[in-house]
TrEMBL record:
Record's keyword annotation contains Signal: yes
Keywords noted in UniProt: Signal
Organism of derivation: Pelomonas caseinilytica
Residue ranges of every copy of the Peptidase M16 C-terminal domain listed in the record: 217-393, 676-853
Keyword presence, Signal: yes
The protein, known as: Insulinase family protein
Recorded family membership: Belongs to the peptidase M16 family.
Record InterPro entries: Metalloenz_LuxS/M16, MPP/UQCRC_Complex, Pept_M16_N, Peptidase_M16_C
Stored SUPFAM superfamilies: LuxS/MPP-like metallohydrolase
Pfam families reported for this sequence: Peptidase_M16, Peptidase_M16_C
Cleaved signal peptide residues: 1-31
Peptidase M16 N-terminal domain boundaries: 60-199, 527-643
Amino acid sequence: MNAPAPHRPLRRLTALLAVAGALSACLPAGAAPAPGAVSTEAGQLSIRHEKYTLPNGFEVILVEDHRLPLVAFNLWVHAGPRNEAKGQTGFAHLFEHLMFAGSRHVPRGKFDQYVDAAGGTDSNGSTNFDRTNYFFTLPSNQLELGLWLKSDMLGWMIDEVDSVALANQQDVVRNERRQSFENRPYGIVEEAMYQALYPEGHPYRAAVIGSHADIQSIKLEDVKAFARTYYRPNNATLVLAGDFDPKQAKALVQKYFGSLKPGPKVPAVHVAMPEITKERRLVVTDRIELSRLNLAWHTPPMFAKGDAELDIAANVLGGGKASRLYGLLVRDKQLAQSVQVAQESMSLSSLFDIEIVARPGASLDEIEALVDAEIRKLATTPPTEAEMAQARATIETHLLQRGEKVTSLADTVNHYNQMAGDPGFAGQDLARYRSTTPAAVSATVAQWLQKEHRVVVQAKPGEQVLPPEVPTPPMPEKAAAGERESLNALEAWRNKPPAAGKAKPLTLPAAQSFTLPNGLTVIHSRKAGLPLVSASLVVRAGQAVNPADKPGLAGFTAGMLPEGTKTRSAQQIAEAVAALGATLTSQAGPEEARIDFSGLKASAREGLGLLADLVLNPAFADPEIARQKAQRLAALAQAREQAPLLANAVGNRVTYGEGHPLAENALGTEASIKAVDAAALRGFWQARYRPESSALVVAGDLTEAELRSLVEPLFGGWKGAGEAPAARPLPPAKPIAARTVVVDKPGAPQTALAVVAPGPLAATPDAAAIKVMNAALGGLFTSRINNQLREVKGYTYGIYSGYTMGRERGQFGIRGSVRTDVTGAALVDMWKEIEGMRAKPMDAAELNRVRNAQLLSLPGLFDTNFAVVAGYAGNWSSGLPLSTITELPKKYGAVTSATALKAAQQYLDPAQLIVVAVGDKGKVLPQLEAIGRKAEVRDTEGRPAQP
């Protein structure tokens, strides 16, 4: 990937989830077609598209959608690990990285800069076992620029790949592997599961990312051979989705892709589904706090008979809080911290995976026996009609929500094109779920989920056993002569990037507000199109107002809200949400608590009714409190497993200082969690959950009149209990002197860094200049810090900076993980970039690029209901006026080099920065001493470690 994305477990990397759904009673019959490409007319989901093929075999799919002035460019190369040669695990993924390293007409490092300068969003790449994709979204006036970039990636990347570029990306990918596997809980466990499932030589056996040995052994000639075979127009498909004129798009596609030479016919892949005839069991030890159980079976390939039935079975068994295994293991027996069940659909064969993280002290054998009993029950007794309806509703809503963003819409169409052979397969896909029956689900479970055909993996705390370390060779100083070659003829006209078309007015979703008589603020942003609605109830009840002796109480209170009301049990709430195919979550942040709902417009009344019930009538029942205590204590343990989370937590303690409400872990401490009772929870709720200190933010296909008719009956009777507590301003941060703190994680292959300091508040008039300055420093993939540490040095998979600006608190931070042996060198480079940012103004080119990256990307940052809700909810929580969002273009446009430099000099003080490094102290401390940093060692709570 060209930029880090939130980590997904290995099983999520194996396939972009088979987007599937069934639009039935949840979509209103006779609904009007959506104004974009996605239609729900008469309750049927369809995606309007046009597919054609150029003479060179290049497939093009046009999805015209004029909801926003955006175009998504989604290029799929039909090659993944299924196409790798023996001993080349991780090759397809490494090739994904190389695609961003420069091409004949786009010099190295310029690709992402062009995307930034044009206001691009969602720019990245990803690899699963079956394909590799490359995507970004640009303003619609940059259609030609996007095609110029994509065509050069596909046709002329190989011209610029040499030994220097290869070595750099090998370093980057190996850092990604360290971050995602060796230094992430259960990473090596998932890899071991795949190796137990698949025999030697099977293309799915290894992790998508490959092994260190194979990644490092890849030669330049291997890269060229792979490009000659697979990276040709006859093995790729481009989806354009968004606001364009089809006639113009076709002409430009021909211009940019028509001259690419086709390659040889791609070798067919014929691999039989592996057969397991006797249960395989293994135990893997890892640096983890909580044990975990995985049960995995080979199952039918994507879209084959049985695939849809197993999707539904996965939902019934472990698809959420209403599922059987969650109810049994998490809620009733309290043996599990989490439950995940999925039918991981792939082209050669699929996997059915049950994953249970155990509570401390729970027996994996006992959990396994209970899971086996539930599987036997499902295999002999069909699921209920209610369970079938819940599964269908969940799947269908997920698919419809993928149509909100043109980015995910384009990827969905490309997915159907490759995996089903038809970009318009949505209708047939939906039919699979409509046509299946409870009996068919039961029979499919009985056929495929048999004990003798599975792999069982128990992950237990212990020593992490890794293969011998593969050395990282020195980076070549320069490429050798004759390393480059061309697949396509040079075309001089491509040297100059195309000019942008006429830009459409930059407008952002506006919002209106009204206030109920009880003081509740209602903020509404209408977003017509798809029949979807998102809402968030925001309450000034975050960590900042925790009682001094009860850290974590705000989060505990918010977490209890979905666990029962006066009229509904936790199970009934979960079942009601599942029946709507919706999501309903609650959490507390530093300054606010939020309850979020997203679902179909048809479920808005019921969804908002549930939200109102949760906030107005919480039960705080003792059995649920006891269960939540165990859940939160286990979550504390899990947080210690993850070095980045640990670095952040310790960073907060040293930034805010002892005694500050935001210095403590948001979960609280073991003592504070154990001390919570119903009286404490109810007292906090009565004092803080009040209509006059809350806002309900709603976005979607609702008029103001429709929203009022829903909100007034549900929330109009909400009254705060007793007198509102006196305002208690958040105390200012009390940072200790700038210093370096090390938290020991013996044997860690990476050091997780959090370089932190107090920062400005949201109301600062310099906010826009600060954000533009930070974009150049470390906020963008193309930023100075990330470019130096990743692209130049190969120290990291990615490292980024940012300002968190709230109503009463602010923080600056630089966060990321670096290879252990370069911890000191990475900090030296980081400080050079910080000092450089403060020393002189940006030149015009850099300013225009990073300012445009903030300014022109704005429409793409507010392209879903949930994004609009999150924006206005955060705006209200920070105490900013409603117009702040719609005024962003003007404020970003006014930033100059001088104001950005002033922001750096005022809000980026190296003397205030505190370095928190979570890693192997035996290896890290000598490096810090060598660069003149005296470090202190602290424990996982952020307190001085005992000698």
